[in-house]
């Protein structure tokens, strides 16, 4: 039962990629196909990032702890879509002109942000195995807080990409801010609780 | 040099046009509708005898996408490959209908462009409200195949049909004080759903310096690919200034006003750091957030590399002299 649920979630996460591949192979991309590929993969990376970040607040608020077992899959799918997004930028958008790409990364704040968001995910993906979690112990959690920085960079990347900051990029930025804000509030609350407990003890 | 033919209009053509105008007057009188001669241009069209000119009643501008005839083919052209009708009508920035590229095609269908009146006013001796037909018909229509370079670093090649803006300006007889022109787009939120959002200040406004407006490359387009403009491309009448970024070429124009100072323009109001009044295509002056050195010519499929952007979008030979001595980095 649990295994079946996992397979279903896996397939659901993969579906946007499969659909995009079908559209690509059957020539059903938009009039600017490279932009279509970049936008679609970018938005799915961002959506899965939001889902990944939502796992903990959701668990805290609902008490439904089993959701935690999907977090790694969401995180790895975020990384998967980010990889495809990055590969399309390098290979199709910039046609492998590495000189130009480096200049772009250094000079264009919105590219710098996207690039940073992506690079910060690499160590997280590499240390997502059970072995790594065991080996790193407490440090694993500290390391994986990098996802917060990556999320901020990803939100800004999207905001800075568009001509006017309105609509979808703003909504994503707000949702990410709320998800990160929840963690800050939760920390403050538990710190306060500990304090009062100490006082009353 | 990409242009095959200089767009300068020979003197002979101007004479032709005068004859053409007189012919119209003659027909009106002959038709027993002398009243029309004295009436405002708005009335003139309706009073013209039916059958004298099939375009006068139920003409091509009444129904977007109707065939246009009698235009001078390839008055200005290029050896580059044209974008397809589907590309030009399916990938648009027209925020009055939404901010996605497919929105104008999807949501512009309900816009009613007939009847259409263009107000020409401000600092001129012959201000008037023109029925669209009357604004355009006295002037020879020309096909102008231009490159269109969007500020977002993509481009197309589009076969516009239109009239030189200079002809419309001449007729209004602007005074010596008129140094700029401001253009205004239709404001009709009921048929332009984007205008119910605050993505930009509405109505959309744009402007040109008088010498830019009078330049022979600057046209008022009323058609594309042999047909009258369809809604997502700015029906029924729009500006096309091929050496400037696309957003300068304001769509669905209802007002042309002669003014004595640099008018406000929508994108400049929205973000003056990023969008200046001039907005000439310039590969050396980047947008603050992205490079303008190259562009993607749409229609090339998945493995379509970017091409270098040309100064003034490749029209430098004709327009660079307008900006002699100006710092184009400051006047972006």
Descriptive account of the structure:
The complex is a heterodimer of chains A (201) and B (332). By secondary structure, chain A is mostly helical. Helix content of chain A is 84%, strand content 0%. Chain A has 9 helices and no strands. The radius of gyration of chain A is 19 Å and the shape is globular. In chain A, 25% of the residues are buried. The mean pLDDT of chain A is 94. Chain B has one domain (11-323): Oxidoreductase, molybdopterin-binding domain (Sulfite Oxidase, Chain A, domain 2), CATH 3.90.420.10. The longest helix of chain B is centred in the N-terminal third of the chain and has 20 residues, at 11-30. The radius of gyration of chain B is 20 Å and the shape is globular. The A-B interface holds A 24, 29-35, 37, 92, 94-95, 104, 107-110, 160-161, 163-164, 166-167 and B 86-87, 90-91, 99, 101-102, 151-152, 154, 197-200, 270-271, 289-291, 296, 298-299, 301-306.
Strand and helix layout:
The complex is a heterodimer of chains A (201) and B (332).
Chain A: H1 2-25, H2 33-62, H3 71-93, H4 98-107, H5 109-126, H6 130-136, H7 138-144, H8 146-161, H9 168-200
Helix pairs in contact in A: 1-2, 1-3, 2-3, 2-8, 2-9, 3-5, 4-5, 5-8, 6-7, 8-9
Chain B: H1 11-30, H2 35-38, H3 41-47, E1 72-76, H4 85-90, H5 103-107, E2 117-122, E3 128-131, H6 132-136, E4 142-149, E5 154-164, H7 165-172, E6 180-185, E7 205-209, H8 210-214, E8 219-224, E9 227-228, E10 238-240, E11 253-259, H9 266-270, E12 294-297, E13 307-308, H10 316-319
Parallel strand pairs in B: 1-4, 2-11, 5-12
Antiparallel strand pairs in B: 2-3, 4-5, 5-8, 6-7, 6-11, 8-9, 8-10, 12-13
């Amino acid at each position: 039962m649990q295994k079946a649920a996992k397979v279903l979630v896996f397939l659901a996460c993969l579906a946007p990629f499969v659909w995009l591949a079908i559209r690509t192979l059957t020539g059903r991309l938009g009039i600017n196909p490279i932009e279509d590929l970049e936008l679609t993969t970018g938005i799915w990376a961002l959506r899965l990032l939001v889902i990944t970040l939502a796992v903990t607040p959701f668990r805290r608020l609902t008490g439904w702890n089993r959701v935690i077992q999907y977090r790694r899959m969401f995180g790895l799918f975020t990384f998967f879509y980010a990889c495809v997004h990055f590969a399309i930028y390098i290979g199709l958008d910039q046609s492998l002109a590495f000189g130009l790409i480096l200049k772009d990364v250094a000079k264009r704040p919105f590219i710098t942000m996207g690039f940073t968001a992506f690079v910060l995910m690499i160590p997280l993906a590499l240390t997502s195995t059970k072995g790594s979690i065991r080996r790193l112990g407490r440090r694993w959690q500290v390391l994986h807080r990098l996802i917060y920085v990556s999320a901020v960079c990803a939100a800004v990347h999207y905001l800075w990409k568009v001509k006017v900051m309105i609509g979808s990029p703003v909504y994503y930025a707000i949702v990410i801010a709320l998800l990160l804000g929840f963690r800050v509030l939760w920390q403050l609350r538990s710190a306060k609780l500990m304090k009062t407990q100490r006082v009353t003890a | 040099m990409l242009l095959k033919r200089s767009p300068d209009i020979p003197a002979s053509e101007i004479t032709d046009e005068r004859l053409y105008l007189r012919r119209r007057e003659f027909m009106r009188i002959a038709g027993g509708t002398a009243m029309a001669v004295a009436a405002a241009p708005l009335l003139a069209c309706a009073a013209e005898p039916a059958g004298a000119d099939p375009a006068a009643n139920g003409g091509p501008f009444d129904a977007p996408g109707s065939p246009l005839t009698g235009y001078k083919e390839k008055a200005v052209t290029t050896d580059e490959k044209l974008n397809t009708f589907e590309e030009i009508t399916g990938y648009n920035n027209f925020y009055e209908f939404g901010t996605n590229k497919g929105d104008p095609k999807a949501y512009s269908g309900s816009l009613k462009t007939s009847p259409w009146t263009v107000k020409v006013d401000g600092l001129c001796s012959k201000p008037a409200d023109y029925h669209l037909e009357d604004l355009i018909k006295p002037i020879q229509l020309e096909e102008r195949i231009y490159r269109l370079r969007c500020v977002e670093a993509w481009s197309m090649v589009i076969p516009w049909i239109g009239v030189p803006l200079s002809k419309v300006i001449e007729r209004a007889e602007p005074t010596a004080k008129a140094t700029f022109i401001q253009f205004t787009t239709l404001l009709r939120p009921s048929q332009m759903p984007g205008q119910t959002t605050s993505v930009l200040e509405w109505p959309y406004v744009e402007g040109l310096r008088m010498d830019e407006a009078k330049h022979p490359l600057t046209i008022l387009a009323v058609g594309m690919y042999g047909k009258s403009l369809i809604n997502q491309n700015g029906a029924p009448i729009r500006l096309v200034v091929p050496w400037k970024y696309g957003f300068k070429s304001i769509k669905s124009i209802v007002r042309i006003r002669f003014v004595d100072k640099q008018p406000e323009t929508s994108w400049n109001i929205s973000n003056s750091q990023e969008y200046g009044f001039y907005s000439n295509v310039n590969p050396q002056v980047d947008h603050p957030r992205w490079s303008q050195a190259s562009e993607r010519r749409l229609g090339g499929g998945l493995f379509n590399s970017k091409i270098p952007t040309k100064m003034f979008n490749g029209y430098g030979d004709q327009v660079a002299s307008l900006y002699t001595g100006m710092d184009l980095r400051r006047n972006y």
